[in-house]
Amino acid sequence: MKRLLAFLSVACSLVFIAGCQSDGPTKTLEVAEVTRSVFYAPLYVALSEGFFEEEDLSIELTTTWGGDKTMTALLSGGADIALVGSETSIYVAGQEATDPAINFAALTQTDGTFLVARDQVDSFQWSDLKGTTFLGQRKGGMPQMVGEFVLKQHDINPQNDLTLLQNVDFGNIPSAFASGTGDYVQLFEPQASTFEKEGLGHVIASFGAESGRVPYTSFMAKQSMIEKDEDALIRFASAIYRGQQYVEKEDSTTIAMSIQTYFEDTELDILTSAVERYKDQGSYATDPLLTEEAWATLLAIMDEAGELPLHVPFDELVNTAIASKSME
């Protein structure tokens, strides 16, 4: 949390350059994604199936590996759009930003992490975690907050009932677990399935299935970008909506084949099983509209985790007009 706020303090002082100029009719948008995960399949489908091109958009996608880095890219003008946990927009608002980050399109609607055990666990019970070492996610990020929310639902105090490790950088968590750190770890797909296939761990539970609907990851743009180029964001959201509908309607193998270019080191069967897991638990939002009910759930989870800097009204940090127009 402190690291994120430090990044934000620097970024908020920088000059924002909204959008990228194009030499022709195609608009170029720079998008920063917080991680590379099958959890974001509708985005990769929209890219691979040409949905953005059909909206006269060219997308330059960069993986920034972590909420703090992703939000810094957005605030400093290094990206036009950020794909990151919705909580980060609230942290920015807590810094009294003059040009806040606005959520304009939802991508996911549950937690996207799975509980992976180092050793095979028969008849897993959440109480098995007590007394073990748990390699968690960054403090103040959605994975960690939802993870703690689930643990508390199962009468586990994350601070007292287990050894919670949060000193590993987001991008290095999988390798840290693979090298022997922790008894359990919280991982996204396809890393969880890859570890399972390679014998490095065993997927034993889903945080998404346990926590229910959460406005987990959304696309954000600065308010100045929305005011200057709302049309481009509507077209962007329209392509995302088509990607969401594709993921909703197609089978897991077809989806895996569509996104395989974005996971060149991952075998098709792993991608297929990962997509299937997310589809089964309803992780993919079926449209880009972020609801007020979902926002209230986010605030409640942040408050429970002790990470809510202020209660921000839904309409201050969420723009529903863009998503609504994108579906027309």
From TrEMBL:
Similarity annotation: Belongs to the bacterial solute-binding protein SsuA/TauA family.
Coiled coil: none
UniProt protein name: Binding protein ytlA
Pfam hit, one: NMT1_2
Species in which this protein is naturally found: Shouchella lehensis G1
Record keywords: Signal
Domain of life: Bacteria
Transmembrane segments: none
Subcellular location: Periplasm
